[in-house]
Amino acid sequence: MLFCIFSQYVKAQREDINFGNFANPVPSVSSLASYNNVPQSNATGLPEIAFPLLELPSRNKNISLGVSLAYNILNTERNEPASDVGTGWSLFGGGVISRKIIDLYDERNDNTTRNGYSKNEFNDIYYYNAPGISGKFRFIRDVNANTFQLVNLSSNKDKIEYVRNSNTATLILDSFTITDAKGNKYFFNDYSRSTSEKILEKNREFRSAFFLQRLLMPAILRSPILLTKIC
Length: 231
Prior knowledge:
Blueprint: H1 2-10, H2 27-30, H3 33-37, E1 49-54, E2 67-71, E3 89-92, E4 96-100, E5 125-130, E6 133-142, E7 147-152, E8 159-164, E9 173-179, E10 185-195, E11 205-216, E12 225-226
Antiparallel strand pairs: 1-2, 2-3, 4-5, 4-11, 5-6, 6-7, 8-9, 9-10, 10-11, 11-12
């Protein structure tokens, strides 16, 4: 297991994974949302339970490339899917952007010639977690002008940018770049595909999560750190 985790940091490789369809973010990373919604502290009454597994060196004291297991009691609730490491547990390492799907996924109306096409509002909540950063955001759609605005829902100063594909019927995302307050850039260029199981959207694919592939720390390193999920 540790070999697979360590390999994320030293080898670049593309892998598409179908995580299935859930109302919450994909199971592998759904548990991370709880840490953004309700922080663990004495004030919230949630104990901080974590076990370090691996620590990788970094010249930036504010960014740890370590891997750890953490437990959050909110992830044991009835409707919460178990993560890859067990109910209530989360694996922190690498970086990922996932989302909570509200009813149906935002970009479902992606063909203007399809029967019943309409410009629907966007409601999904996106969560991100990577070494040194975490937060959440969403998109707001102006259905009249067919424009999209990304809104940061966290109190941090992270700058979140995105690249969309050429589809003008809706907003289909290709990648994200997040820049923190210190100028460190996180490139989420790899994504997983999932298949909808909703009756009206049966077997239609959507992009369920985006994975960190590059981390650029310009104040310390000229060359980016390459990461990938290969296990």
